[in-house]
Design a protein that fits this description.
By secondary structure, the chain is an alpha/beta fold. It has helices at about 15-25, 25-40, 40-50, 65-75, 90-100, 110-115, 115-120, 130-145, 210-220, 240-250, 265-275, 300-315, 330-345, 360-370, 395-410, 410-425, and strands at about 5-10, 55-60, 80-85, 105-110, 125-130, 150, 180, 185, 205, 225-230, 255-260, 280-285, 320-325, 350-355. It has two domains: about 5-15 and about 50-150, Rossmann fold, CATH 3.40.50; about 180-425, TIM Barrel. Strand 10 (about 225-230), helix 10 (about 240-250) and strand 11 (about 255-260) form a beta-alpha-beta unit. The longest helix is centred in the C-terminal third of the chain and has 16 residues, at about 410-425.
Length: about 425
C-alpha cells in the first residue's frame, strides 16, 4: 500500500541562544512557548483525513535531529507532506533536501510556501499554494503515477462546508495538552502586519455541524480536553455566532480563542461565549505608538478597548492582551509607557512580540520598498528577533528595548499577579473551572 508521512514544523522558534535563554528564564514567556509547542498541526491532520483506504500514513512531529529523517525514511514513504511557517521553513528546507538525496519526493505547503512558491520549489519536489484540501487528491494521484508537478494551486478557495474530519487518532497516545479545531479561515479585516491564513483567501466559516463532529471525536479520545481554536478572528463577520457557540457548549469543553475586542460591546454574545466554555480569548491591542493601516473596525480609542476588556473579564473569560513593539514611532519612552500601561492594567494575560514583517503582508512590502529589511534568514522571522530597521531607534536599541519590556512584563512578580487575577476571574464563573493555564 502507498504511504504518506506527514511532518509539521510548528511551535515557537527563537534563533539566538541569548534570546532563548532569556525567554526561558521568564515564567510567562516560557508557559506560552510550551503551549504553542503542544499544538498539533491541524492542516496535516486534515489532509490525513482525506486519504482513501488504499493509503497508509504516519505523523512525525518535527525535530532538529537526524532522528526525524531516520524516522520518516523508516516508513518507506511514497510522499512526505511537510508544513512550515516562515520561522521554521529553513528547517523544513533542510529536511526536504535530505529526503531528496534519498530519492524520496516531498510536497511542501503552508503560508510561507504559498507566498514564496518559487523559493520553496528549490527544495521540495512539489509546492502547495493556498488551501491544501483543494489539491490534495490530485497530488496523491500524481504520486502514484510518478507525475508529480512542481506546483499545485487551487482554482478557488476551499469550501469549509466540505471540511473532512482531521485524523486526531494520529497524535501520540499520551494525553494531548491542547487540541486544535478550526471554525473559520481568513479574517474580514486587513491589518497591515497580518501574516495569518487570510493569505490563503477570503474569510470563510465552517458549519456548526462539522465543528460538532470534530468535538465529538476529540471527546471520544480525551474526556476533559483543552481546545485551542485555530482561527484568526473567531467571531468577526460570522452571522451564526450563537449557533457556533451552542455547538461547542454541548460538548462541555474548555477552550482558548482569538477574537476582536468588540465582542466586549455585546454582553449577550459574551455571556454565550462564557456558557460555551471559553475561558480565555486573545485580543489584539497591538501598538500604543502607531496605528496600523487596514485595521478596519479594530481601530478605536484605547479606553474603549479596555472597557470592552473589562466586560469580557467580568463574564469570567480571561483576556490575553496582545501587543506589538517596534512599529514606526516607537521610542524608548513609548516602550516605557507600554510597560507601565500593561503593569497598571487589569489584563489577566499578556502577549508581547516585536513587529515582524512576514512575507506576503503589506508591512513586508512597505518595508521592502523603503529598503528597511535586514539581511537575515527566515529563522529570524520568529516574533522576537528584529529583522528591519526601525525609524526612531537603532536595531540594537530596539532589541535591548524589547528585552527590557519582556523582563518587566513577564517577570516573576508580574506573572504571579496575573496568575492570581486569572484564578479570580475563573472563580467568578458558574461551576468554576480549576485550571492554572
Amino acid at each position: 500500500m502507498p504511504h504518506v508521512a506527514f511532518v509539521p514544523f510548528t511551535g515557537l522558534r527563537v534563533s539566538t541562544a541569548e534570546m532563548l535563554g532569556f525567554g526561558m528564564s521568564l515564567p510567562g514567556l516560557r508557559d506560552r512557548g510550551e503551549a504553542l509547542r503542544e499544538l498539533p498541526s491541524l492542516g496535516l491532520l486534515t489532509l490525513a483525513g482525506m486519504l482513501s483506504e488504499e493509503w497508509t500514513c504516519s505523523y512525525h512531529p518535527s525535530s532538529s535531529t537526524q532522528t526525524l529523517v531516520d524516522d520518516v525514511l523508516a516508513t518507506v514513504p511514497d510522499i512526505v507532506a511537510v508544513s512550515a511557517l516562515t520561522a521554521s521553513v529553513d528547517e523544513a528546507y533542510r529536511l526536504c533536501d535530505e529526503l531528496r538525496q534519498a530519492a524520496v519526493p516531498t510536497v511542501l505547503g503552508g503560508l510561507h510556501a504559498t507566498v514564496l512558491p518559487e523559493e520553496a520549489a528549490l527544495h521540495a519536489d512539489a509546492v502547495c499554494v493556498g488551501d491544501g484540501e483543494s489539491v490534495w487528491p490530485e497530488i496523491l494521484v500524481d504520486v502514484l503515477s510518478k507525475s508529480l508537478k512542481q506546483q499545485y494551486e487551487p482554482a478557488r478557495p476551499f469550501d469549509l462546508r466540505l471540511s473532512p474530519l482531521p485524523r486526531f487518532d494520529l497524535l501520540p497516545s499520551k494525553s494531548i495538552p491542547r487540541w486544535t479545531i478550526q471554525t473559520q479561515r481568513g479574517c474580514p479585516w486587513a491589518c497591515e502586519f497580518c501574516g495569518a491564513s487570510r493569505l490563503l483567501g477570503p474569510a470563510r466559516y465552517k458549519p456548526a455541524d462539522r465543528i460538532d463532529r470534530e468535538l465529538e471525536v476529540i471527546r471520544g479520545i480525551d474526556r476533559t480536553p483543552w481546545i485551542e481554536l485555530a482561527d484568526d478572528n473567531t467571531l468577526a463577520g460570522r452571522d451564526d455566532a450563537m449557533e457556533l457557540l451552542s455547538a461547542i457548549q454541548k460538548h462541555s469543553v474548555r477552550y482558548f480563542t482569538e477574537s476582536d475586542w468588540r465582542i466586549g460591546e455585546n454582553p449577550a454574545l459574551v455571556k454565550a461565549l462564557t456558557s460555551s466554555g471559553c475561558v480565555q480569548v486573545l485580543v489584539g491591542i497591538e501598538s500604543l505608538a502607531f496605528q496600523y493601516a487596514g485595521m478596519g473596525r479594530k481601530d478605536a480609542q484605547l479606553n474603549r478597548i479596555m472597557q470592552a476588556v473589562d466586560v469580557i473579564q467580568d463574564h469570567g473569560i480571561v483576556v490575553n492582551g496582545c501587543f506589538i513593539v517596534g512599529a514606526d514611532g516607537e521610542t524608548n519612552q513609548s516602550l516605557d509607557r507600554l510597560t507601565s500601561f500593561i503593569s497598571d492594567s487589569q489584563l489577566a494575560e499578556v502577549q508581547v512580540t516585536v513587529q515582524t514583517p512576514f512575507p506576503g503582508t503589506a508591512l513586508y512590502r512597505r518595508l521592502a520598498n523603503h529598503r528597511r529589511l535586514l539581511d537575515r534568514s527566515w529563522s529570524h522571522y520568529n516574533l522576537f528577533d528584529v529583522v528591519y530597521a526601525p525609524d526612531m531607534l537603532s536595531v540594537s536599541e530596539l532589541e535591548s528595548g524589547l528585552r527590557r519590556v519582556l523582563a518587566e512584563v513577564f517577570g516573576a512578580s508580574e506573572n504571579r499577579k496575573r496568575k492570581r487575577l486569572r484564578h479570580q476571574i475563573w472563580r467568578s464563573r458558574p461551576g468554576w473551572l480549576r485550571s492554572s493555564r
